Amino acid sequence: xxxxxxxxxxxxxxxxxxxxxxxxxxxxxxxxxxxxxxxxxxxxxxxxxxxxxxxxxxxxxxxxxxxxxxxxxxxxxxxxxxxxxxxxxxxxxxxxxxxxxxxxxxxxxxxxxxxxxxxxxxxxxxxxxxxxxxxxxxxxxxxxxxxxxxxxxxxxxxxxxxxxxxxxxxxxxxxxxxxxxxxxxxxxxxxxxxxxxxxxxxxxxxxxxxxxxxxxxxxxxxxxxxxxxxxxxxxxxxxxxxxxxxxxxxxxxxxxxxxxxxxxxxxxxxxxxxxxxxxxxxxxxxxxxxxxxxxxxxxxxxxxxxxxxxxxxxxxxxxxxxxxxxxxxxxxxxxxxxxxxxxxxxxxxxx
Length: 351
What we know:
Layout (H helix, E strand, L loop, with lengths): L16 H11 L18 E3 L2 E8 L5 E2 L2 E2 H14 L3 E13 L4 H18 L2 E10 L7 E11 L1 H10 L20 E4 L5 H9 L17 H10 L2 E5 L5 H13 L2 E5 L7 H10 L13 E4 L4 H9 L8 E7 L5 E4 L5 E4 L12
Parallel strand pairs: 5-6, 10-13
Antiparallel strand pairs: 1-2, 2-7, 3-4, 5-7, 8-11, 8-12, 9-11, 10-12, 13-14
Helix pairs in contact: 2-3, 4-6, 6-9
Organism: Sulfurisphaera ohwakuensis
Protein name: Hydrogenase expression/formation protein HypE
Pfam family, one: AIRS_C
């Protein structure tokens, strides 16, 4: 087994502690102070001169899975990174690297999925790049999508509401806006995507009817921001809820208390993670959002989420607290445990 201290391993790309340490050690030195929300924030997008900008590469295995494919994943993931900043996504680039011998029928299927998902999200594919590598030099196909967006009118309204109860340094959805007492809301059931990927893999020996939740969430976020009072939002992809909430706790300097009994999860997902010995909080998702909302607006935001097809299973799962450190989970039997940042995603290559 490769030594993660001396070489790059799969752990370094899995969204947990190893990846965060790698970014801080090697890539954070590239930060030169540029941008309203710059590289130093280490969020999923940046803001430069009022434009939200993000990029992501997709290496999911298998490329076709229950409920989606690598094309739908690429569009949805980049759209969501913009939407979670409070941006209104406008346009995407599309870069594809394929191995020699890749079936044109599979490429046509992926391109059609990209087209349909872009139409669903109301974004445009405006530029791109294509490369081909020697056979066996690549695992079938890798897709990179970059995206741009602008501040929506809904975002401006959101911060008008938020400013009634606090000072706001950044008028974008970032962890520094989180305050003591904010409610933590998740937009739907957790773990669907990771379990769908696992059950789609050959040789895993595990079957499930769970479909991936992969979907663009920009329309849902506009509905939420129309209500107002959202301090931050993020989609719990690699590393899941555990990584996301630890990131918020670290960047806000506050503790987060959540209740296991309030976390929405499908019964089939619960059975799967028990069978496989996985931690629900560490499973990646591609169609869910976690929101930190001012307590005065939490019920209104929850109601707005539940009125949409993407947030019908939304629930308040906890709150931000200044009297604790890190992330604390109250278990279903009433105990408490510290939730740490995962080492890596227990299901690698889910996106």
